[in-house]
Design brief:
The structure is a homodimer. By secondary structure, chain A is an alpha/beta fold. Chain A has 13 helices and twelve strands. Helix content of chain A is 49%, strand content 18%. In chain A, strands 3-2-1-4-5-6 form a six-stranded parallel sheet, with helices on both faces. Chain A has a three-stranded mixed sheet with strand order 7-8-9. Chains A, B: InterPro entries: 6-PGluconate_DH-like_C_sf, NAD(P)-bd_dom_sf, PDH_C, PDH_N, Preph/Arog_dehydrog, Prephen_DH.
């Protein structure tokens, strides 16, 4: 089920994916950077300096092409794909999904595209920072939208499983709304906290300990990287910001008027305990049949994930999917 | 310079202090809990079941009494101190300082009081969670207010140095304003973030990774502990909340109207880098003389700290203080 994989862009994510996938299938790729190509070639990987050459090989071998370069490079890459390999299997690993789906519709409308997003990373970047274990145990979102053909989704999910990830199926918009809350908002709160602390002057900085260090850690991420995902997820992030402003504003008013923070402390603590407890109620289920897309989306929405894929004997389009799903919600 | 130490309350902080100080001076204490007393006695420490007895011994030996129980217990403890040992040397280790100074003025006005706050802790509590190394390398605030006699400040600073802390002198109000920003606000932002994430449902929880886990970590603290310090530091915390609401609100408006987050990302990243760099410009200075209090406060305000204390030969009240102070600010 896992075709050859062609990776465009060999930074932290693309480079880690090349290493991780290479033990499971044939992998090749492209990088615009001489230095990255040199490093990857030295490490024994097949990397071309010609995008057209890499894409022609992808078309010849019915490979899965992975867009792993920064989102601002996607439009020209997609136009070349549309020229050289218009109906190729295609995915991406960017941290926003609706916006990428729009770019694909616009520039490579015939590609067999399924967006994806591995929830993995480190503070470092570049080929040399990569690791074949980067994706192990991470959630890897694989998008299923109205127009998605499950036959196109299967190789993307198979790739994520092959490198050790939990496969989370969901709609592109659902993904963007979720990551606004659990990834993009945490970055903005960290950036705000860092500034409020600095306004306290050198005394505040010298007293700051683990709560401040943890709360501001991701503010150490390069500003252009934070802007790359936050500024491409505007409506969902504005909603998340409004929820945060509402909760903090109510707490501020309560503290100033009655001196009490009972509401935010109780509700926030309960929410953190629920986060610690996530996944504890998952049990194995099997999915198959004509409405596989709906079943997969139900699994993702409920906090579950796909663990195994097998093709059904004699049915090249049919798949048997094993997943983990919250037991309290009963059968699908 | 370090007198005997009498610790009232033997939880995480009091119990760690008893262990840490015991190699440097004579240490004894009191706990209201049978189980804590039993554990401490088994570990070889002198712990009384009678508060009056412990305080009488403190008065006899001119010991430094350390209030290490929760703030709500301070008023009755202070009334007993005023009855049994009214002019005793006294400090506390609570995370708010103005409010404790008010309680002491009200209930034990003759005590030789200097408030203090070790910026140390773990997620655990109780005698058994304690460690003699808890204070090593931590900032330990020692308050100097208008009415403070440096002769009373010296043993408190000596205790903090004896257990391996950096001694940060500052006014009570300065402390409260600083910790509102670098400790109390981080707790409220973590509590808000946990709730905004939970509003994203099970999908958001299953996708949450390190930025969410780090950003909500302190929301795992028990609500009554968070309320104990936030609700006793109202004006300073309201100011910090207003700064946070302002910065987040401006970012929200900018994102919604222009799609840009350039301001918050650049300023927040620079603030985090400044935090990482704190203390890099400190050089050794020596302080002494009649205006020692002013010199010490200048050190703390500038982000410096005290490293050594020695008494001056033939002058029981005179001290020589070595400290680290930002070199760019020049001489004191």
């Amino acid at each position: 089920m896992l075709p050859p994989v062609c990776i465009l862009g060999l930074g932290l994510i693309g480079g880690s994916l090349m290493r991780a996938a290479s033990t499971k299938t044939s992998v090749f790729g492209w990088s615009r950077s001489d230095q990255t190509r040199q490093s990857a070639l030295e490490d024994g990987f097949a990397v071309s300096a010609s995008l057209e050459e890499a894409l022609a090989k992808a078309a010849d071998t019915d490979a899965l092409v992975v867009l792993a370069s920064p989102v601002p490079t996607f439009a020209p890459l997609l136009r070349t794909i549309n020229d050289v390999a218009p109906t190729v299997r295609l995915t991406d690993v960017a941290s926003v999904k609706s916006m990428v789906a729009d770019l694909v519709s616009q520039h490579a409308p015939h590609a067999r595209f399924v967006g994806s997003h591995p929830m993995a990373g480190t503070a470092h970047s570049g080929w040399r920072a990569g690791s074949p274990d980067l994706f192990r145990g991470a959630a890897w979102v694989t998008c299923i939208d109205e127009e998605t053909d499950i036959a196109d989704w299967l190789p993307v999910a198979a790739l994520a499983l092959a490198v050790g990830s939990r496969v989370v199926p969901c709609e592109s918009g659902e993904h963007d709304r979720a990551v606004a809350r659990i990834s993009h908002l945490p970055h903005l709160l960290a950036l705000a906290l860092a500034q409020v602390g600095e306004l306290g002057g050198p005394l505040a900085m010298s007293l700051a300990a683990s709560s401040f260090a943890d709360g501001t850690r991701v503010a150490g991420t390069r500003p252009e990287l934070i802007r790359a995902f936050t500024e491409t997820n505007v409506p969902a992030l504005v909603d998340a910001l409004d929820d945060a402003l509402g909760i903090i504003g109510v707490a501020r008013a309560s503290l100033a008027s009655t001196g009490s923070l009972v509401k935010i402390t109780e509700a926030g603590h309960a929410a953190r305990l629920a986060f610690d407890d996530r996944g504890s109620d998952l049990t194995a289920v099997e999915l198959t049949g004509q409405d596989l897309a709906e079943q997969l989306l139900a699994v993702g929405s409920a906090g579950g994930h796909v663990t195994h894929l097998t093709l059904k004997a004699g049915d090249p389009e049919g798949a048997l999917v094993r997943a983990l799903y919250p037991s309290l919600d009963g059968d699908l």
